[in-house]
Amino acid sequence: MADEVNNAGENVGAVGEGxxxxxxxxxxxxxxNWPGALLVLxxxxxxxxxxxxxxxxxxxEVAVGNQYFSSFFDLLGNVDNVRxxxxxxxxxxSPRLRVGALSDVWRxxxxxxxxxxxxxxxxKVLAKTSAFLTQVGxxxxxxxxxxxxxxxxxxxxxxxxxxxxxxxxxxAKGLAGMEAEASSGRxxxxxxxxxxxxxxxxxxxxxxxxxxxxxxxxxxxxSVQQFPTLIYDGPxxxxxxxxxxxxxxxxxxxxxxxxxxxRKFVPFDAxxxxxxxxxxxxxxxxxxxxxxxxPKKSGKPDAIVDVTKTGGHVVLMNIARDIxxxxxxxxxxxxxxxxxxxxxxxxxxxxxxxxxxxxVAVIPFVWVQDGVYVYPDMVKVKVALDNGDILSxxxxxxxxxxxxxxxxxxxxxxxEAKELLSPAxxxxxxxxxxxxxxxxxxTPEALCWEFRGTSFGEDFFVYIDAASGVEEKxxxxxxxxEGSLTM
Length: 487
Prior knowledge:
By secondary structure, this protein is α+β, with helices and mostly antiparallel strands. It has helices at 2-91, 95-117, 123-148, 155-183, 189-196, 210-225, 255-265, 330-343, 396-401, 414-418, and strands at 274-281, 287-293, 302-308, 314-320, 349-351, 355-356, 360-369, 372-384, 390-394, 426-427, 432-437, 445-455, 458-465, 471-480, 483-486. It has 3 domains: 57-232, no CATH class; 255-401, TATA-Binding Protein; 414-486, no CATH class.
């Protein structure tokens, strides 16, 4: 009996040993499967993260595409409204209605300019269209002011209105040619923006490619180039083209030198960029158009720089790249622009105001001579509000007007000029002297006392001629979510 018990114990022990070995085997197998399970979890997590990223990017693309889509159709409406308002200004028999129609022209042309600038199309493609909208708006503003002051419109004024009406009709027809493509959804605005920044190669022959937009706007701009040049006595921009540029000095340069100047001027290291002459700018200030193409995968943008044939001055610089959501404010953008101007030797420039357009700050600077703000000597700088990069520089006004002026002593002092202001204006800042453009070519500038003030809750700038005491100009400061604009 004892032997049987012992044998049973041995058998039980054997079974226990076998069970232990099996347990060890199962435990080892489970441990061996942990790396595979971890990989599966990581794969699932990466897929989930990737899908989330794709969804977020898709939402962003849809939002950006909708914004461009809206800007394009708003542009169509603005141009058509310009055409209608010009027609009304021609048939209005009363000065009151004519002033209203011309004011509509000015407002719609300004809105068209803003919508045009927000589209992902390079400046060189839209240069003439942009200039035409500026001319129309400025001329309408000046003419409305003339009519409001009970001055008779000249025969030339009527002729110019007729020409602008015809030109606006041609412009509207050109834009309408792209409307069907945009309405059908065959234009992918996000791809257009990417192609403008050379990130995605275009596929020729497909009606959904960026060439549709580029070719369409190129045709529109070519039709604008056929318009006759409008020369008028407006105080703001294109009338300066009627004058001989006085800020372009120095010896002639060749194309090789122009490329060197362009490389050094852009606000990044362009030593590895491919530089070439894309063409020549035939205007009052003849210039070489230099193209700087970044090496692939360098992470740097391309640039276009116009360099004058005389003296090698930079008239225009434009850098195209995608703009991420806003991270800096206008004050920081102005500081970045100031640093850039200092680096290129423009140390006597002061900002006048700043505005935002599509996460980009637009900042005009004027020359200051002996404490006097010289508004005709203006440059415009655009700054990206995602990281403060300089995107654009425009010195056409500065190169046209800049020279060392002999500023006479004011005949009337600031206190005397202040007495000439409307009693409805409350002065809110110390007066300062400023040279401003005026509306006659014979006397294109006037030294004025500049007063900033408020009236019924709105801000204004009023300019009193420092020699005659005549109130030369009143500008309203419009504060919006996009910054401050003078009007």
